[in-house]
Amino acid sequence: EGQLDVPEIDSLWPNHVFASRAVTGSARTLPSHCMAGGAVWGCLVVPWPCMATRTIRLRPGTDIATTLRWTSVRAAAFERPHGSRRQARGVPGWWWTARTPVGPVTLHIVACAENGVEVTAWGEGADWGLDAAPGLLGCDDDPSSFRPQPGLVAELHRRTPGLRLGKTGLVFDTLLPTIIGQKVTGLEAERSYQSLVRMYGQPAPGPVESWIAPAPETLARLTYADLHPHGIERKRAVVVLEAARRHRRLQEAAAMTPAAAFARLTAVRGIGRWTAAIVLGIALGDPDAVPVGDYHIPNTVAHALAGEPRGSNERMLELLEPYRGHRRRVIVLLKGGGFSAPRYGPKLAPRSIANH
Q: What would the 3-class secondary structure string for the chain be?
């Protein structure tokens, strides 16, 4: 098989250290960038063996970077790139980590040929992740029926022909940061989520510095008092804990139609239209999911499509009605095009309840 000397990991923070002694491991499945010393994080570090590699054929013209930008809760909800999917220094491609129904996984996605990518997976969820990779990269999205009338939306669509709406297939993995983002600023939500992940999560498998969100079974054993130090007040904490206890039933929504999945999600008290729409868009790849109740999107849609500085949820739905079936696609095009409503006052100041 061939052998490769790799460092033994004596400690892990979060995923890499310099080793004190060497052990041997199989080099057969290790990707080339992990076999070259200094290619990953400045030294040869392979904490876990590579589980599998698969080549995937994408839809013609797919823009991988643009597609992956919107296959993330925090990119969609808070307009921030997902930290676990960033590019590692010196390593081409994209990293994506998640907790699948069968365990943690890290995917490394590299464009390898025309309309093709090589996906390498680490962790217990490697096989699940490889099976989900085509959906993640938008292979299940068909925008051929999207034919907007001449105007702004048509022009944005023309400028981004490679955009595909991917899906993760992971309901609770999407729900957790979305619930934490209810009724707070993006900065507050990010702080709370990262704090929770560092306390109850785990380092991601494979040669990437990232963390996996807590397992729902772990969160289900907690109480509100455990979540309060992370800046999550009782109202959101109760929803997080209830969703964690029902995670198996909620995960079943990934295989349902959007309407049935919406009903399953909103059956949990505290999961409303906004939260359900975010999950439908990210986990199921629903191109028509509209996050009614969002703080910014109604204003963005009203300003971009009607020149109105402010818009209600009703006005947003009215303006998006001609695009029914692809309303989330229109929202993504507007946000990706840099459109936002004018701001007339200071931003909401982040708050912290952790010490109160």
A: CCEEEEECCCCCCCCCCCCCCEEEEECCCCCHHHHCCCCCCCCCCCCCCCCEEEEEECCCCCCHHHHHHCCCHHHHHHCCCCHHHCCCCCCCCEEEEEEECCEEEEEEEEEEECCEEEEEEECCCHHHHHHHHHHHCCCCCCHHHCCCCCCHHHHHHHHCCCCCCCCCCCHHHHHHHHHHCCCCCHHHHHHHHHHHHHHHCEECCCCCCCEECCCHHHHHCCCHHHHHHHCCCHHHHHHHHHHHHCHHHHHHHHHCCHHHHHHHHHCCCCCCHHHHHHHHHHHCCCCCCCCCCCCCHHHHHHHHHHCCCCCCHHHHHHHHHHHCCCHHHHHHHHHHCCCCCCCCCCCCCCCCCCCC
Q: Does pTM surpass 0.70?
A: yes
pLDDT tens digit string along 93-151? 899 999 999 999 999 999 987 889 999 999 999 999 999 999 999 999 999 999 999 99
